[in-house]
Design brief:
8-stranded mixed beta sheet, elongated, about 20% strand, 3 domains, 25 strands, 6-stranded mixed barrel
């Protein structure tokens, strides 16, 4: 019986190669997207789960009220926080302080530039990063010790067991020796914390006593709660610790769970999506494309089942049960689903790098764990039920008497259902292409926005602090390169953020008011690289020796200070009193997602780790090569990476959602066209006799094509109308997230749908042309 059953199924699929091929192709696409979405989501939700104390780890952060009343989180806090936390919240078992740094290390003729942390000596007790050499409990007790990664050890010594050996930190003029006390295994990709080395936090404090001040912005603080502790109660206990200690500081502490760090961020006192946004986009796109593939399967199946009513009717006459007919169809569906699933798995396994490039992730099939297999089975079962059951019921519902009399079921409800599927299939791609064009418009707006920097003429080097006490000589050597017109040392690249300080006072300031200002350390040539728009006064000039003790502020800072005539007024920043000599406007210290913030600029030779170089002639590659030669001449051991301003990673990266939605549009449109092709096949099969009679009476091929295309165009117009409000709502929400954004692109609501509809019409035209150009004698003989 089973052998007979399978023979019928395989014979039907083989005889209907077009039907089988189209369904196989669209299900393969759908499965591929669903599998990638599942792997991406599993990858994100598996972040940091290797920590044994995963659910007990929290970052301590603080809400700070900014100048405009918004409340935003402050991650870096005072190093004196642990004592206060343990005193007021005994539920806290461990506290770890960490501050991130990037250093170059040297051993003999080898160098290694890496990122790491100064961290307390209980770091490896709280976080489960496996130590493979050394005792995790005491490897950070020695102030001059260092713990390095396995790859860093192999780079220097070609052997991971190198404890006791010496590395030299090349920190500018400071060359400090550290004894390797431990080696830890390479940090997993699914870890929020990524680092190459750990140095005792006590070492950081020896040179940074200011970090212990209550209002200091020094380090991140992580806590591990006791097993039975309620983090919400702890949250209430620590909320006002800093305010109670120093009332002038508007810091409201809160706990940020490690498990939420990869998914969320805090803004304006609320938890908002961060990585969760990508999770939802990827998940929704994967589900929608799978649904489109299923609906396409349904349409194609119903279209071809018209020719199978007689088969079903005869089977019913000879005694076949309805369940048998349904089982037969579901078996056909299962074979196609199985083939599509296997092909999708192979496709995902063969092309992981391409998917990771689009998703900016590190997903791969790897060993097929029980969790992944369960997801595959769920996807296959879901697809089988959605795509196979409805056509099976449609076929099994035939009345044998009506079928044998030559009548075909043309239920109006089924017709509406199929047309609704087509409308849905095209509503999604049309909405996607509009959303993609809106994102592209905002991305182009941000890239082309005039932030005061010639994006293709300014080169940035970010670790220049490794060449200290040579800034004058280095600047002269850089300016000697042909084509270079300006060189400036600073801590602020426009739109890239700067250091924030609340230690600012001025005449008439309320002593209890602690507002935050973005502080820019620069030199006299900053305006030679960045276009500074002066409103009042002047910029710094070496002609005035007193300018080293003066300040330039922006118009936002002037409004915050409520100065009527700011130029000439006094200002004190971090204990240094000076005079305001100029007011600038439209200076973007942070990216375009945020507002213009209060900025204070000063001349300061310290804390300027960045050099910005403007060139006017020569190509970037040749100028970069000459800059590298100069930098290597001043410090051969350091690693430098000059980059064009326009090539710097975007703070508000729109490439992932744009690429993802664009790819989804292409796949959705392709699958939608397949569905439309199926519906066209259904209509043409039903109207073969009508078309033959019309042609016999003199109708032209084009007139018949116009007749057939009219109904399809109606469904596409309905899809266009439904997609407009969806796309507009999503686009408006997206643009509202940026303080500076492009206007809603009206052209996107016309060009995008026009392209989608044109492709759909061409797809249908291909099918209708074959029917409309057919010899009417053949059509009538067939009937």
């Amino acid at each position: 019986m089973i052998k007979y059953f399978l023979k019928i199924v395989i014979r039907f699929l083989w005889r209907n190669k077009t039907y089988s091929g189209l369904n196989y192709a669209c299900l393969t696409f759908g499965f591929t997207c669903a599998i990638i979405a599942s792997l991406y989501i599993l990858n994100i939700f598996d972040y940091d789960k290797f920590h044994s104390n995963y659910r007990r780890l929290y970052s301590v952060e603080a809400y700070v009220t900014f100048f405009n009343g918004d409340r935003f989180p402050k991650e870096y806090l005072t190093a004196s926080l642990p004592d206060m936390l343990k005193k007021h919240a005994p539920e806290i078992e461990e506290v770890v302080r960490m501050t991130e740094r990037s250093y170059s290390f040297v051993h003999e003729d080898k160098t290694y530039a890496g990122n790491g942390f100064y961290a307390d000596n209980n770091f490896f007790d709280v976080f489960s990063f496996p130590v493979i050499y050394g005792n995790s409990r005491d490897i950070l007790n020695d102030i001059n010790s260092i713990v390095i990664s396995e790859s860093m050890a192999l780079n220097f010594f070609e052997n991971a067991d190198c404890t006791g050996k010496i590395l030299v930190m090349n920190n500018g003029s400071n060359r400090e020796a550290y004894r390797i006390s431990g080696i830890f295994r390479q940090v997993p990709n699914q870890s929020l914390l990524q680092f190459d080395f750990i140095i005792p936090f006590s070492k950081f404090l020896t040179g940074n006593a200011w970090a212990l001040e209550t209002g200091a912005t020094a380090n991140t603080t992580w806590i591990m709660l006791r097993s039975a502790a309620d983090w919400r109660q702890v949250n209430e206990k620590i909320k006002n610790l800093i305010v109670n200690h120093e009332s002038s500081l508007n810091h409201e502490l809160f706990l940020f769970p490690l498990k939420d760090k990869i998914l969320y961020r805090y803004a304006d006192g609320k938890r908002v999506w961060s990585g969760m946004q990508n999770v939802m986009i990827v998940g929704a796109v994967g589900l929608v494309i799978l649904l489109i593939a299923c609906f396409n399967f349904i349409n194609l199946a119903i279209a071809i089942n018209i020719r199978r009513y007689r088969e079903a009717g005869i089977k019913k006459v000879v005694g076949s049960k309805k369940a048998f007919i349904i089982s037969q169809f579901l078996s056909e569906t299962s074979i196609i689903i199985l083939a599509g699933m296997v092909s999708a798995i192979v496709l995902v396994a063969l092309l992981p790098d391409n998917f990771n490039l689009i998703l900016n992730s590190n997903i791969h099939l790897g060993a097929l764990s029980s969790k992944i297999i369960a997801y595959f089975l769920m996807i296959a079962l879901f697809t089988g039920l959605i795509s196979g059951l409805i056509p099976a019921l449609y076929l099994a519902s035939s009345n044998p008497i009506s079928v044998l009399k030559g009548k075909i079921i043309t239920s109006h409800s089924y017709s509406i259902f199929r047309q609704s599927l087509i409308v849905f299939q095209f509503t999604i791609p049309i909405a996607l292409i509009i959303c993609m064009l809106i994102i592209k418009t905002q991305d182009r707006y941000m890239r082309e926005y005039d932030a005061g920097v010639d994006k293709d003429k300014v080169i940035v080097v970010e670790n220049i602090s490794e060449i200290p006490d040579k800034t004058g000589r280095l600047k002269a050597d850089l300016l000697a390169i042909p084509g270079i017109e300006g060189v400036s040392y600073t801590n602020c690249i426009p739109t890239r953020n700067a250091r924030v300080s609340n230690e600012v006072s001025w005449e008439g300031k309320d002593a209890s008011e602690k507002l935050h200002f973005w502080c820019i350390n620069s030199d006299f040539d900053y305006n030679q690289v960045v276009k500074i728009k002066m409103m009042e006064g002047r910029f710094f000039s070496p002609s005035f020796s007193s300018d080293s003790d003066c300040y330039v502020i922006n118009d936002v800072a002037a409004r915050v200070m409520r100065y009527t005539n700011p130029v000439g007024a006094s200002l004190t920043l971090e204990g240094n009193k000076g005079t305001i000599i100029g007011i600038i406007k439209d200076f973007h210290a942070i990216d375009l997602a945020g507002p213009l913030v209060p900025v204070i600029m000063r001349i300061k030779s310290e804390e300027r780790p960045i050099v910005m170089i403007r060139f006017s002639s020569g190509n970037y590659a040749s100028v970069k090569e000459q800059i590298l030669k100069v930098l290597k001449h001043h410090n051969p051991d350091a690693s430098f990476e000059p980059a064009l301003f326009q090539d710097l990673p975007a703070n508000s990266n729109l490439s992932l959602p744009s690429n993802l939605i664009g790819l989804s549009f292409i796949i959705g449109l392709l699958l939608g066209c397949m569905g439309l092709f199926g519906l066209a096949s259904f209509s043409c099969e039903r109207r073969i006799k009508e078309i033959g009679i019309r042609k016999t009476n003199g109708a032209t091929t084009l007139s018949i094509m116009g007749l057939l295309l009219t109904s399809y165009l109606k469904w596409l117009v309905i899809a266009f109308i439904l997609a407009l409000p969806v796309a507009f709502t999503l686009g408006q929400y997206f643009l509202s997230r940026f303080f500076f954004h492009a206007a809603m692109p009206v052209w996107a609501f016309l060009a995008g749908p026009a392209f989608a509809i044109l492709v759909a019409i061409l797809t249908v035209s291909f099918r209708t042309w074959g029917v409309a150009s057919r010899n009417p004698v053949e059509a009538l003989r067939y009937e």
